[in-house]
Structures are given as C-alpha cells and as structure tokens.
Predict the structure.
Amino acid sequence: MKKFIFIIIFLILSSNGFSANEELKNKIYKNIRCIVCQGQSIYESNSDFAIDLKKLISKKLDNGENEKQIYEFLISRYGEWIVFNPGLNFNSLALWLLPLIIFMIGGFLIFRLNNRKKK
Amino acid sequence: MAGYIGNLALFFSLIFNGFLIFLLITRIRNNNFKNLKTINFFNNSIFFLLLISFLTLIYCFIVSDFSNVAVYQNSHTTKPLIYKISGAWGNHEGSMVLFILILSLFSFVFVRTKVSEKLKFYTVFFQAILILIFLIFLILTSNPFDRMDPKPLQGLGLNPILQDPLLAIHPPFLYFGYVGFSLVFSFALAGLVTNNFDKSWSKIANFWIILPWSLLTIGIGLGSFWAYYELGWGGYWFWDPVENASLMPWLAATALIHSNIVTLKKDKLHSWTALLSIFTFIMSLLGTFLVRSGVLNSVHAFANDPYRGVYILSTILFITFFSLAIFIIKSPKKSLYGKYYFFQRDNFILINNCFLIFFLSVVLVGTVYPIILDAISGKSISVGPIYYHTILAPFLFVFLFFMSHGPLLSWNKEDKFLQIKNFKIFFPISIVISSVIIFLFFDYKDIILILGLLFSVYLIVSVIFDWVSQKKLSLNFGRLVSHFGFGTLIFAIFINAYLSKEINAAMKVGDEIKIQEFTIKFKSINRIKKENYEEVFGNFLVANKDKKVELTPSIRKYDQPVQFTSETSIKTNFIVDYYFAINLSEFEKDKIMVRFYYKPLMFWIWLSILLIAFGGIYQTFRLRNEK
C-alpha cells in the first residue's frame, strides 16, 4: 500500500510544467474571446480582429510581458468579457462556489443516510 | 397548395388535441379508465396530422416553394436535395414541428405498450398538455407555413456550414433524445398523481429513460464529430453553450438511469427518481430555450428571436412550477428511507448521483451564470474551457474511482474486504500500464495527465475484471459496454489533450517547411466548380519519420449566401488523425494560411461514444424482450 502512494508522490514530483513559447502563445489565444465572432476564441478565428489581436499578443510576449500582464491589458481595454477564464473574483464567486455547495449538500445527505443505520 | 394542407393539418392537430384533453379530463373526473378506443383515435389522429404537416413542410422545401417564408429564408434552388430535405429541420420553425411530432410520436408508441390503463390515461394527458403548449407556441410565434406575397423568385439559402450530411441527421437524433425525455416526465407525473410510483413504475420507466438517453448520446457524438471536421480548428468540444445545452439533459438522465435502478431493485429512492424524471425534461426544455431564444452568443445560435425566448421561458417556468407542485403534493412517502451501508451498491449509486448532479450544476451554472450576471449587473464575463476543466477534473478522478467499484458491490450485503482485495488487484495493474504509457509517449508530465490516465485505466481494468467474472453476461452486458466506453473515452480525451500537436504557417505553392518533426510540402492547387459553390483544393504532403500522408483541404465559396468555408482533410490510421485545414489570408495575399493538426486517438473518442450509446441500445432491446 505504502509503495503505491510513494509511486504516486514520485510521479507528481517528477512532473514539470515545461512549455515552449509557441505553446504559451496558443494557450493565451485560446483564452481570448474573439469579440466580433460567435463564441469563438481568437485562436479559432481568422477575423481581422482575431488576427490583429494575435499579432499584438505575440509582440507583447516578445517584449517580455507575461501572461498575466497581457490579460490585464486586454481586460482594461475590452472588459472582462474578453477572457474566457473568469478567474476567482467577486463577480465570479458564485460561479465557482455554487456547484461546490451543491456537491457538499449531496455529500452531507449521503453521510446522514449512511449513519442512519446506527440508530 | 401543399403549404395550405400542412397548415390545415397543424390547426386540426391543435383542435384534436383540445378534444383529447377535454375527453381525458371528463373521463378522469368520472373515474372511467375503461375503453381506450376514442382516446386512441384522437391520439393517433394527432400524430398523423402532425406527420402530414411535417412531410408537407419537407415537400415545400424539396420543390422550393418560396411563397413559404421558412423555405424562402432557408433554402435555395441550387442546393442539393439532401440539404433541401434537412433544411426542413435546420431552421427554427421546422425544428419546432419536429419537436412536437416527436412529443406526439412517443405518446403514440406509449399507448401501445403494456401499462395499466389508469397510468396510460394520465401519461397521455400530460403529454397532450405538452403538445398543446408547444403547438400554441408554434402557431403563434413561428408558424412554418407563413406565406409571403408576392412569391420571391429565389430563396436566401442555408448557412453553408450547416450543409453537411452529418448535420442533416444530428438534430433528429438530438431531438429524439431530449424530447424523448418528455415521456418519462409525463409518466412520472402520472405515477405521482395516481400514487403508483413504485417498482412496477420503474420497470416500465427504465425503457423510456434508456432509449432517449442512447439516442441523445449518439446525437451529442454526431454534433461533436461535426464540430471536429467542419469548424476546422481541430477541436471537438468547445464548451459552447449550445453543446452544454445538450450535455445537461444527458447528465441528468444518466443520474436518472442509475437512481431508477435502485428504485427497481430495492424499492427505495422513489422521490429522488421522480424528481430526476421531472428535472431531466426540464433540462431539455432549458436547452431548447437557450438555443432558440437568442440569449446566447454561440456558433450554433442560428435562430434568434427575443419574443420566442420570452414565450419559451415562461413555458419552462410554468411547466417547472406545475410539475414541482405535483411532486411536492404527491411525493411518495417512502422516499429515501431504508438502510444504506457504505460499501453497498445502492449507496455507491447515491454517490454516483451526487457527482453527476455536481457535473450538471457546473455545466448549468457555467452556461447560465454569465447571462444572469449580465441581466442583473450589466457586467459581462466569459466562461470558457478553463473554468470547466479546472473545476471538473479533480472530481472526475474520484468519480472514476467510485465508478470502478460501484458495479462490483453487492445490493444486499456490505463487503468492504472484497473491495480492498479488488483495489489491490486493480491499482498495481493500472499504475504499471499508465506509467508505461507516460514514460513511453510523454516528454513532460503533468499531474492532471497522470491522474487522468491512472483513473481511466483503473476503470477499464475494473470493467474487464467485472466482465470476465460474469456468470450470465447478457444480464449486465449493456452496462459493461457503456462503462467500458466511458473509461476509454476519458482515456482518449486525456491522451488527445496532451499529445496533440499543431502547426500554423503561411505557404504558397511549392513551399516546403519543417517544423517540429513534420515536413509539410505544398504541392499544387486545383479548382472545381460545383452546383452551389466553387472549391479550391490544396494538395499537401505531410511527413514525419514514420509516415507520409497526402492531404487535400479546400476552401469553398458558396453562392447563396456568399460565404467562404474551409473544408478540412483528415486521414486516420485509427491511432492518429492527420488533420489539415486552409484559409485565405488578409495580410499575405499571395499565400494561404495552413493549419496542420496531429490528433491522437480521435477515432477512439468517437468509438467510445458509440460504445456508450450501444450499451444503452442493447439494454433497451433486452428490456423489450423481457416483457
């Protein structure tokens, strides 16, 4: 038993988040909404808007800006709507918490049913 | 002319439906449940009238009768026949006719099955109410036979990305699925009202849950497959609100299938099963609302009209309120009572339901929350794939673990030690298999990938173990196939997500580029003129160290309406897909933008979805033969 846990820990530790510049670019593209399209990211679009934005992002990356700075810049310019990842903030609190609360209620009910027998 | 017949049939079906409801109410009042003849007559007539109406609409599309508004807006004389036909349900009006036709079809088939008369009466009654609501909606807000005068000479055409053979059959499957859940909804209300919600209810309901569930599974799979090869971005699931809309009833129905088994086997969990039966159909309605109302910003939202949205939304609220009221008043008293031991099958099904409802709430909240936030505070946020992946992944792993052990548990006896023994068999095997895969194929490791592979392999191992230890295979064959399919699906999804590669470049004829381990050569270009579009093919040769593939993606220019689409070229050896798409570039006029994707195990994703659906279909046939 202990061996297995050990193996898992080893696997976790040996993992590293290596990613090339190209992958980071695509990751950012996929997270930016093409606001002139219908529900697509700029990665999945060839509209002028998407192409311009892709160029802009790629330039900013070359200038040494990081992912977070790019998002902040885009949000300040286009609003929060532009990023697909809502992050955790006041506006999106319920988004993350509601499902978790539902899960906990379910878990609690099952827990109670399991302990009913002891009566 | 045909349009008049269709319209007339539609009105008559409304009148007949009114008669039917009136008749049912008087019969129910007099407590007279004998003699189904007149009921059957009306029920059959409604179905045939709707069928006539639907066929006439198809006919109008085939002959391009542009005096019909729906045909004018969605068709064109140069469109190939198959898309003229599928155009009939490729638009809002026509798809609503199909929606009502399926409501009626399920009622039509249901009265022919062996069910107690009282239950039959009430089920037909609730189904008739649903038909009434949607018929009124159809006739008032979206009559498919609206006419225009003078008759235009030519139609506006169908959106080219919808002109696809798969998309011709995808909506009917989807509709059979989620409109099919209406029957179990009506049947549940009937069971509640007549105090017949018990084991025998479950036995009949089983068929009516699993059948639409299987069809919906295929429908979702077809939609995903279409998105994969038609949209041209190598993706197959975008967490697009319209995709989510079809996933919600699927998740609810999956929970229902399982809870219904507990009701059937142990005569427990009645209230929950009843609630899920209601809830599944409400999810279908919500999906219809999201797709049809135009509140969404989505690739699929091809039919938008705010008035329709308001009508459907109030309809959903009415149906929800009404059915929940029945549920609360008539809820079976036995409900959750009964003993639950942790290591017992029924308890693991409770856990399964808890997870599935969680998944459902994630999809539901993720889809609806931005709309509500926007309405309340005017703030727009986007909820994309990252949200879903982050919140779902950790729960998915635990879910897979429970799913591996659940079916191995006994219904009546708690046996903890047997499961620990099983764990000691499955775990080392899956550790070894997943480690080998990771060390062979991945040059970087990610904890999510490791856990995803580990637990999906764990599930597959447990299903195989379960399979070989079956005494009578046919009994559990459906479940084994579906569960196995789910295991391979998750496995393929993870491998695909981490091993996919892509190359983007601008090329002209004669160019050869070398990126990563691939060499791409742009050999030539040729042009073809078809009836309703012009197509430019690029011939490419893609090679890596062990394979050479020729791919011929293209760009189409449609005449009506004028629109460019890019057609992908995909070659598969069942392990890896080589996927190529091209499009025109605004900035580099003399070059073409090329996108090449290397997509492993795509075939296994489609196969897994088919396995999941096949398990369900097998089970429905087995249920039928049992009767």
